[in-house]
Fold this sequence. Notes:
Blueprint: E1 8-12, E2 17-22, E3 29-30, H1 32-46, E4 53-57, E5 66-67, H2 69-72, H3 77-95, E6 101-105, E7 108-110, H4 115-118, E8 122-126, E9 130-132, H5 144-153, H6 156-164, H7 171-176, E10 182-184, H8 187-202, H9 206-232, H10 244-254
Parallel strand pairs: 2-4, 3-5, 4-6, 6-8, 7-9, 8-10
Antiparallel strand pairs: 1-2
Helix pairs in contact: 1-3, 3-5, 3-9, 5-9
Amino acid sequence: SMTEAGWLNTRDLGDGIVELQLGRAPVNALSADFLMEFAAKIDEWGQDPAVSAIVLKSPFKGFSAGLDLKEAQEFDLEQQHAIVRGLNEGFLALYSCPKPVVAAVGGAAIAGGLFFVLASDGRIGHSRSAYGLAEVRVGADFPIGPLEIAKATLDSNTQRRLMLTGQSIGPIAARNYGLVDIIAEDMEDLENYALREAHKLAELPPQTFASVKMQLRGEVIDRIKAGIAAGGNAPEGGWFNSETKAAMEKMISGRGE
């Protein structure tokens, strides 16, 4: 089944395991609407007793490239607030989802796109995948939701390596840093490993799983919610600073786009 815009495609994998394909072609660039639609789907499945586990994947070569910089560099104040809200609400929904979520990462997961991975419970990476938090390179700091999730899921050296440099790492470094659990050699392995991990998590007592997840993440979730309540979805003066547009421009030209 497809959502209205075709951004989220769902598939039943049996035994209560459902697949959510991130389908905003061509690279799953993040938009406010895409993220809010994602949050709504995750919330819906989180409350659905028929769902025992969720597999997140992308049908494209990349997993998610983060913001579309060409689009983002023109954002006015209202659009900046909308994307910050989307990033906060979308990844809070995933991080706090009571159901087990397994991310199958077949390509690059960059900047905002990496939070689909960091907020998931099981993470399988392809041998050609890449991982990065390029925010600093594009002149943007971290909204409260992604920031708290990054601090909770990455150790301080990995924060330094990814968040302060903005540089990407490959799958072996990502496994060493605990970003992914397993590296799959090819796409078939990626699907099989993801399904296998989803089955393992789906077999756990569901109320207990949800309870333990909340024990582990409750304080972080409360901090994000408090940050949002204090105006975190609409930072004063917008999300971007005086350096952002030029930094985005530099990234775009540097990528040969």
